Each structure stands twice: as C-alpha cells, then as structure tokens.
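S.,

Sequence below, as promised.
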Amino acid sequence: MTTPDGVAAQAPAQRKDATARPARRGPADPVRALMHHHQNLCAHAVDALEIAAGLEAYGVTDRTAARFRHRDVFSLAEELYARVPRAEPDAAPAATAESASTPSPGHPPAPARRSRSVRGALQLLPGAVCLATVAALASSGEATPPARKAVGIAGVVLLALAVRLAVRSGPLRLRHHEPRSRAAALWICWTAGYAVYGDWLLGQLLTGGPDLPAAAPRPAVATAVALACALAPAAGCARWFAVRGRRGLAVSRGLGELAARTRPLLLTATLLFLGALVALLLGAGAVLGSDGAVAVAAAAALGVLLFLARLLAVHGFPEAAAAGLASAAALEALALSLVLIARLPGLPPLDMPVETLTTAAGPAAVPAVACTAAALGLLVHGLRALTGACAHSPCEPAEAHRP
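The prediction came back faster than expected:
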C-alpha cells in the first residue's frame, strides 16, 4: 500500500522529471509534410539531385533543411527520393528509346558523332554567311545601288536564319520556349543593329543630320563579322560551363559547396569567351579596317552581354536575361533620344552628357558604357543564380517555380 506520505514524496519527483524533460514540439516525422507538398516533384525525379534542384527553386535552403533535421538540402533530397515511390513510366517508349540509344556490338555510336558535327557546322554558319555577304558587297562595287541594297538585304536575312539555326541546337538551345524569349529577341536585334549602325547614326545626329536619303549609312563591318563568328566560341564556352557545373552538382554536399565550385567556372567561361571575342575583333579589324580601341571595347562588351544573357536563359533564368538586354537597349535609345530632344527650343542642355562622352572617347563610348553596365549586372546576378542546384538540373526553369 502507498501511504499518503509516500504519495506526497513522489509528487515533487514527478514534477522535477517533467521539468527536466521538455515537451517535444512539432510532428514526429517533419519530412512527411514536405513529401506531400512536393509529391509530384519527388515522384517524377530521376535522381536526388533533381529533387534538390526543385527544392532550391522553391526557396528551400540549408538553413531550412536544418528544421527538417537534415544538415543540408542534398541530404533532405536523398531522404525524399528514398521515401517517395517513383511514378510508373511508360514502358514502351522507354524501351524504344533505350534500344535506339544503345549501339550494336562492334559498331561505334556514329549518329551521336554525326549530330555533334552538324551542331558544330551550324554554329560556324553565321560567320560564314556574314563573310560571304561582305565578299559579295565588295565584289559588287560597280553594280547599281538597288542591286547592292538587294545583296545586303539578302545577306541580313540569311544571317538571321543562320543565327536562329545555330542557337536552336547544342549548348545554346533553350530548354523551354517561353513568350519572354520574343522580347529578348527584340532587344538582341536592337543592340546588334546599334553595334553595326549606331555609331554612324549618333555621329550624324550630333552634327545636325542625318540628311536622308543623301546620307548613306556606314556600317561597322569588322564588328558584324566578329560577332557573327563569335557564336562558335560562345557555344564551346557554354558547353564547358554546363558540363563542369553538372559535375560540381554531382559531387557537392551542400549549396554553399556547390556555389564555391561553380563561381570560378562562370568567371572562367566568361573570360575564355571574352578572350576569343577580342581575338576575333582584332583579326577582323586588321583585315576589314578597325574603328579604334573604343569600338573594339564596345563590341566586346556587347558580346559578353549576349553570352551571359543566353547562358542565363539556357539555365532557366529568361527574365533576368531579357532585363539585362533591355537595360542596354534602353540606355542606347536614351542617348539617341536626348540628342533629338535637345533640338527643341529651350532644351539644349539635355544632350550635354552624350556630347561630353562622345567628344572624349567617340560615338562608340555610348554602347561601350551601356553594354558594360548591363553585362556587369548580368554577371553579378549570374554569380548568384547560376551557382544554384536548379541551374544545373534537367528540370523546369528555375523562375517557373518562384512565386
């Protein structure tokens, strides 16, 4: 029997144990709610890396994973991949694809090599078309102006088609086509057109012109040829970055480690492309005539801007790419607009910044400043966006998951 004194003696001990053991807060299985919330992502993922990329796109960080009793996002993704049953794939197409991709014994995978060669030829096609157009215009010096104009228009159309073919295959191909890519194409056309004719147009506006139709536009031929030929090294640098970024994703054990591995890759790829583009610009200038060091700097800044914008779009950030291109186009259009607005009565000081800049460094200083500022902005954004797991996983675009 328990005496009243015994009961009274046990009560303080029970209260002491209850005080020493705090009540457990939260569910016993905190990952279960995450499993239900990301059921579709986990069920259709091909590996844990794809789940980690999707979680990061939804805003899950290593600190968030700690609340689910995991050291990082990759560890949390591995548990989700292990616990969520895989969705049943379509067996027939999978078997067909496997049989088509498996080479027969004793025969090398010739179709893969052939497709790689075709992609390489397509990436060299814009430069070849541009050089052929320049050669055709140079050989038609005695032709009538309408004939020369027809040759030029045909060359521009063929160049646009060649560029479209080059970026629709290989490492420069977008994983998902979105309406935002049309706006980006408009800004690309503007910045490329300004690189070829903008310096001539700004010089004419500053001197009171242009006197149309007497004034004949003077294109920057060396810049056009170098930018067209730069598609091939851009594809090579983009492939180099994508392959090594995927390897870094496979061996990294946390978002911080992945970012530390990927940032040098992005900087190296950008510098490699910049070096190749400068070499093309100097070579084209030596053969076709150069417009000066500032013009080379402006064309190099535009090339890096286009490269970073395409890299962001390919890896799932088309909005950032379009914003960078639009900012450069807006600055160039603003410079032209200020010169025109300053012609109105009472508004002559408006073109003072443009006139001061062009007097000091020439008309090419305007696109140099605009494209350099936009390229630096995209590079800073890329050092944060392209170093995440979602940028290197074959899943939906990263911006599609963001609210």
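The chain has 18 helices and no strands.

Coffee later?
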